[in-house]
Write a structure and sequence with these properties.
Strand content: 25-35%
Helix content: 25-40%
Number of helices: 11
Number of domains: 2
CATH superfamily of the largest domain: Spore Coat Polysaccharide Biosynthesis Protein SpsA, Chain A
CATH topology of the largest domain: Spore Coat Polysaccharide Biosynthesis Protein SpsA, Chain A
Radius of gyration: 26 Å
Strand order of the largest sheet: 5-4-1-6-10-7-11
Order of helices and strands: EEEHEHEHEHEEEEHHEHEEEHHHEHEE
Bound molecules: cytidine-5'-triphosphate, magnesium ion
Length: 375
């Protein structure tokens, strides 16, 4: 069974009091909604993801989620959760829809699989916690064994959600979850136990509690290096895929982009691969001199291994030319090539004070370090 997933990340996060939309507040080193994106991307039965965010955040969301292949659409949410759901539902192509709050960053693969199982005997299902405290409705104590505290993910046959939304709109009901909507349309529902750590983040204290949980993640670090001598003939100087000048370029069989070579080496080493020359020399002989091609090939390998770049640090040594003023343009180029936010790219340069061949202005030397994280 294939499933469309709607990731609801369009709330304002009033109660969290961070002065920013909740889904974009950092949890364990990344924007909250990226945890759920990771989860949905990893579940084999989720075939597409519709990400719903506040309208002013669409571009930021696009940048942050560029590495996620299953995203079909990033769209603007509405003033209520129900409206945001309706906005996302329009783009769902599968017959079954999974909804996930960005505010539930600790949801698990097992919960999604459990919901898919639960759908065998029902039309909609959701994860929830049993009430631990005594529950009262004003003066009446309720039987807490019958009380469930709802969380996401939730799953529903799409037709029930569509009809549920129509009924809710007609009857002016504002549902705060999908089970309620499916129920309005007469769905047979099921509730399964939520993972103990999967609690919605609502108040500042929830963020603190959440920091205790371990988010399964695997990191890789890569180190790359390259150096080239300046050419005696007229060649363009290209660094990070950006043409700095028509002259003063570096020697090499390729375009001599020493920065992209160091970066490609770093990526390759992080993936357990070999040096640039082991694949780029052959590409060069086939006439591919653009260093972006070597980088692209390595990025493809990285995606196949289900990793994404989290940040890049580059250090350049050379007496000439002065590079600092070109950094914004080089950064822009790297942002595009790596689909990485510019705040995650650091470029530094040093003249080398005449101590080395680079310090004497005979060439350029570059070191690059990358950090990769699994998808
Ligand atoms: N949500 C949404 N669109 C809205 C409101 C909420 O997509 N108009 C999403 C939130 O981004 C969140 C989930 O629904 O992932 C659960 O909502 P809630 O915890 O209430 O989040 P916020 O509305 O952002 O928080 P608050 O109510 O404190 O403002
Ligand atoms: Mg809300």
């Amino acid at each position: 069974m294939k499933i469309s997933a709607i990731l609801l990340a369009a709330g304002s996060g009033e109660r969290l009091k961070k002065g920013a939309p909740k889904a974009f507040v950092e949890v364990q080193g990344q924007a909250m909604f990226l945890h759920s994106l990771d989860l949905l991307e990893r579940h084999p039965q989720v075939s597409e993801i519709i990400l719903v965010v506040p309208k002013p955040k669409i571009n930021v969301a696009k940048r942050l989620s560029a590495a996620f292949k299953k995203i079909k659409k990033i769209t603007a949410g509405g003033s209520t959760r129900q409206k945001s759901l309706a906005a996302g539902l329009e783009f769902c192509r599968e017959k079954v829809v999974l909804s996930q709050n960005a505010a539930n960053p600790f949801a698990t693969i097992k919960e999604i699989s459990g919901l898919i199982q639960a759908l065998k005997g029902s039309d909609a299902a959701a994860v929830a916690h049993r009430a631990d405290s005594t529950v009262r409705e004003n003066l009446k104590t309720l039987d807490r064994r019958k009380i469930w505290l709802m969380e996401t993910p939730q799953i529903s046959k799409k037709d029930f959600l569509i009809r549920g939304l129509q009924i809710a709109n007609r009857q002016k009901i504002e549902a705060t979850d999908e089970l309620q909507l499916a129920e309005l349309a007469g769905a047979k529902i099921k509730i399964i136990s939520a993972d103990k750590k999967n609690r919605k983040i609502t108040h500042p204290i929830d963020l603190k509690n959440g920091s205790m949980f371990h988010v399964p993640c695997s990191m890789r670090v890569g180190l790359g290096h390259d150096s080239h001598r300046f050419s005696k003939s007229k060649r363009p100087l290209i660094l990070g895929g950006f043409k700095i000048s028509a002259d003063g370029g570096l020697e090499g069989n390729s375009d001599g982009d020493v920065l992209l070579h160091a970066l490609t080496n770093a990526l390759s080493s992080a993936l357990g691969g070999g040096s640039l020359s082991t694949f780029a020399d052959a590409m060069c002989r086939r006439g591919m001199r653009d260093s972006k091609k070597y980088l692209e090939l390595t990025l493809k390998k990285m995606r196949a291994a289900k990793f994404t770049v989290k940040n890049l640090a580059v250090s350049i040594e050379g007496r000439k030319p002065k590079l600092e003023k070109h950094f914004p343009k080089i950064k822009k180029q790297l942002t595009k090539l790596l689909k990485l936010d510019s705040s995650r790219i650091g470029l530094t340069a040093t003249t080398g004070e005449g101590l080395t061949a680079f310090g004497r202005g005979e060439g350029l030397q570059v070191f690059a370090i990358v950090l990769l994280r699994n998808l």
